[in-house]
Every structure is written in structure tokens, then in C-alpha cells.
Amino acid sequence: MSFSKTTLGAATIGIIALLLGGGIYLRLRPAPAEEEAQVATEAPSLEVPEASLASFARRPPPLTGARVLRDTLWIRIEASGRAAAFRRATLSARVSGQVRDVRVRENDPVDPDAFLIQIDTTGAEAAETVDRAAAGRDARLALETDGLDRR
Asked: Are 97 and 120 in contact (CB under 8 A)?
């Protein structure tokens, strides 16, 4: 005989609920009248000699105390040590430039491929434009000189 996981789970939850309910009922139910009467008649008896009661009544218990003071508690701790990272990661970018904005703080959790920093690439773009122009100029000069050599 086999039962599905759902059936077994529901049966387990039902049994636990039944046991908890029964325990709560037994704990919170009112006591029967017989038990209350029996408890009331069976009061514990304490036999204390009269001499000890008289001596206790004459001497008050000693009290000790301190004046309450509300102030700031200053604690100074001096320690030496060395901090070390428990995990390192290499951060690289596909473009060159200066970091303009950092979007995460120390110990922030990040997802893979998350946007972490913003890089200002205006200087790199200008240098790339200059390089392209120089390459284009060199190519034109090479074609012009090649055309002059063939004549």
C-alpha cells in the first residue's frame, strides 16, 4: 500500500494538530470540583517555633544599596591586528577611461553582470577618433604615393 507525498504530508499535519489541540485542552481545562475541594483541604503545614518568629520580627533584614547614577560609560579598547580579505575578485572593463560613479558600497551583495561602476570614456573616445583620423590619413597618403609610383 503506497500513499502519495501530499497524502502523507496532510496526515502528518493532521496528527500534529490533533496532538497539539489535545495538549492545549488538557492544560487549559477547568479542574473538577472534587479536586478543588481536595486541594483546598490539604494546605501544607509549616511549623515555626515562636522564638524564631519573635527574633525575626525584632530585627529588620539588612539592606544594602547604591545610589543610582546615570552617565555615559566610556570604554577605550586598544588592539593591534591585520585586516585581510577572505575573498578577492578581479574587476575589468571593456573600455578605458576614468571612473565617474561607483554604484555599490563595501560588502553589498551583487549579481553577476550587475552595473557596478560608470566609466567616463570621453577621453578614450577622443583618442580613438584621433587614431582613426591618423590611420585614414596614412591610408590616403599610401594610396596617393602608390598612384604616383605607377605612373
From this structure: yes
Judged against a pLDDT cut of 80, whether residue 24 lies above it is answered with: yes
Whether the CB-CB separation of 124 and 107 falls below 8 Å is answered with: no
Q: Rounded to whole angstroms, what are the CA distances from 48 to 41, 54, 57, 61, 62?
A: 20, 11, 13, 18, 22
Q: Which residues contact 124 (CB under 8 A, 6 or more apart)?
A: 95, 96, 97
Q: Alpha-carbon distance 56 to 60, whole Å?
A: 7
77-129 pLDDT per residue, tens: 898 988 888 888 787 777 777 888 888 888 888 888 888 888 887 776 777 78
Residues 116 and 103: beta-carbon distance below 8 Å? yes
Q: What share of the chain is helix, strand, coil (3-state, %, to 5)?
A: 45, 5, 45
Contact indicator for 95, 127 with CB cutoff of 8 Å: no
- Which pLDDT belongs to residue 82? 87
Name the pTM for this structure: 0.28
Torsion, Cα of 22, 28, 32, 35 (10° steps): 110
